[in-house]
Every structure is written in C-alpha cells, then in structure tokens.
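User: Sequence recovery, please. Input:
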C-alpha cells in the first residue's frame, strides 16, 4: 500500500447547521389533509415541525400526493422588506416520490425508514 495513501489526513470540516442539511420526510395525505409521520434527524424539517407542528399545510407541503410518499428537499432561507423592517422565513424546495421497497418494509414494520 502506498504510504501517502495510508497516512492520516487532518481535515477541518465545519459543522453544518440544520437548515443547510437536506431534509427528508415520510408524509401521509388523505381527503382531509396530511401530516409528516417521520422525518430525518437533525434537519431543518425537524426544526420546522417543532415550531409549526406536523401538518403538511403548515409546513408548506400541502401539495403532497394522496397516500404515503417521501418528500426530499430543503428549506430555503428567504428575506423580504416590510414596513416593519426585514422579515425572514423559510420555504420548502423539493419533491415527493413514492417509497422504495426497502422503505415500505420499514414503514409497514412501524419504523422510520429514514433512520434505518
């Protein structure tokens, strides 16, 4: 083995804030609304849920398809000027997809497929 390849490399990796991390969520939507069932750990959606609750409309994810799906994306940080000064908000940017076969197995077992 090449000694240069086996030497330890000390790289300073900055800590990433939750709002900078991709978010993933298992969502369920029916005729009368929907909610986030599970989400990825230490991500912005986890913070948004703690602040707003897990209802899809409150999280900006009301356009989810009917049934169970996975949302993958991020919350983009936005600012805008108002009469009271600069306001800040987050906006979800992402897409919904069907769960994979492995994710369905975890969901059916009552486990968070995003943390398995």
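Assistant: Recovered sequence (116 residues):
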């Amino acid at each position: 083995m090449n000694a240069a390849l086996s030497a330890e490399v000390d790289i300073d990796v900055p800590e990433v804030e939750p709002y900078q991390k991709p978010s993933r969520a298992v969502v369920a939507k029916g005729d009368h609304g929907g909610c986030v069932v599970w989400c990825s750990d230490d991500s912005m959606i986890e913070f948004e849920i703690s602040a707003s609750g897990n209802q899809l409309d409150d999280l900006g994810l009301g356009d989810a398809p009917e049934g169970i799906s996975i949302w993958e994306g991020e919350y983009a940080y936005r600012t805008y000027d108002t009469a009271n000064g600069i306001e800040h908000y987050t906006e979800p940017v992402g897409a919904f997809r069907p769960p994979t076969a492995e994710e369905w197995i975890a969901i059916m077992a009552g486990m968070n497929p995003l943390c398995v």
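Residues 44-52 form the longest helix (9 residues).
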